[in-house]
Amino acid sequence: MNSHGDNMDNMKDKDIAAAGEVSADPDQEENPEKRAEQLEHEIEEIRDNLGGLVRELDHRRHRLNPLNAISHYPWPVALGSAALLGLVVGGVVLHRARARERDSLLNRGKRLQSALRRAMDKPDKVAETEPNVGMKVLTTMATAVAAVAARRLASRIFAQPS
Asked: How far is CA 101 from CA 5, 104, 108, 112, 117, in A?
C-alpha cells in the first residue's frame, strides 16, 4: 500500500485508541473545567484526523476520475482512441468494399445465372413465396379492419328508421 493508505491506517488506529481511553484519574472526572478542556482537546484531535481523512478521500477521488486519466496517461489513452477509430474506419471501409463487390456487374451476372438455374431445376417453386411474419401480421390487421368496417356499414344500411 502506498504512503497515503498507511497514513489513513495510522489515523484509524489513533481514533480507536483515543475512543478507548478512559481516564483513570478521579480528580479529572470530578473537576468539570478540566474535563471540558480535555473534551475540547479530544474534539480538536478528531477534527484534525477527519481533515486528513477528507483530504485523502479527495485525493483518491481525483486519482480515480476517468477524465484525470487522460492527463496522467496521455499515450495509452491516445493509442486506445486511435485503435478504436481505426476499427470503426476499417469496418466502414470493409463494408463499402463488400457492397461494391456485391453490386458489380460480374457478381450480378453470377446471381442471375444461379437464379435461372434454380428456376430450371424446380419451375414449380419459381412463383412460390413464403410470407414473412410482418406480412402475416399486416394481413391479419387488414382483415380485422375490413370486418369492423363491413359491420358498421351494414348496421348503417340496415338500420331501422326511428
From this structure: 61, 5, 9, 15, 22
